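Collaborator request, handled under Task 6.
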Amino acid sequence: MSKARLLIVEDDVDIANMLRLFFKSQGYEVEVAMRGSEALEKTRQGLPHLLVLDIMLPDIDGYEVCRALRTNTRTSHIPILFLTQKDERSDKLKGLELGADDYITKPFDIEELKLRVQNALARAERESLTDPQSGLPSGRLIEDQLRKIIRQSDWAFMDIRINYFDAFRDVYGLIAANDVVRFTAMLLSEVVDEVGTPSDFIGHAGGDNFVIFTTSQAAPRLKERLKQRFAEAVLSHYNFIDRQQGFILAPGRGGEMIKTPFMSLAIGYVTPAMQPFTDIREITEVAAEERRRDALLAAG
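C-alpha cells returned to the collaborator:
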C-alpha cells in the first residue's frame, strides 16, 4: 500500500515524539494529537489509516474517543490500537468491547508495536475495509451500506468519478495522480461536513471512483457544491503553463497529443423516489448510468 497515515494520540510528549520519529522512519505519515478532542478533530479533517490511542488523556479518555469513532458512520472502520499503562483484564475487555482492534501495555517493545500496527493495517486491507490510497471505507463496507439503505425509505446513493483523471496521470505521473485521489477524498469529507448530514457515509470504490450515501434532500446540494469546490481547488494540481493555457496536452489512443480539459467531477445519484430497487446491483447500475449522463453533459 502507499504510505499509511497514523494518528498517535498520546499526551506524554516524550512518548509521542518517540513514536512519531520511529514510525516516520518506517515510512508512515504520522500525526500526533495530545488530547482526545484534538484526535477527533484531526480524524474528521482527514481519515488516518490507524490510530494508536492512549487511554489516559487530559480531557476525554481513550474509551470515549474509541466510542465516538465507532458510532460515527464515517470513522467506524478505522483500526484502533490502545496504548496504555493499565494492565487490568477488565480494562482490556472494556477497550475490546468498544471495538478496539488490539491492546498493548506500557512499557512496550517498539518492535512489537510496529508488528501490531502492520498486522492491523494488513487485516483492514485484506478484508476490503479501507482503500490503501485514501483511507476511506471500500469493498465490503460499501456493500454493507448498500444492503442497509435498501431497507430504508429515505436515502440517496451518489456515484462520483473524476473526469480526465487518466489523461492527468499520463501527463503528470502516478505520484501526482495519487495526490489527486487523496485530495478528492479530503474534499468530499469537507463538503459533506459543510452541506451534508452527520450520518453521511463516504466510500472509495477504487481508482478515481468514490461514493456517498446521504439523504434524498441533501443529494442535490452535495452534487452542486462538490462540483464547484473541485473545479476551484483542482487547479492547484496543474503547473503554471497548463493553468495559463486552460488545458493539458495528453496522448490520445493513436499516440497523438490532444487538448484535454482539466479534471472535473461527474456525479450521478439515485433515490428510492426515482424507482423501486430490489437489489443493490440495481442501485449501483442506475447511479453509474446517471453519472455517465452527467459526464456527457459536462463534455458538451
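The cover message to the collaborator said: "The CA atoms of residues 168 and 177 lie 7 Å apart. The chain has a mean pLDDT of 91. Please let us know whether this matches your experimental observations."
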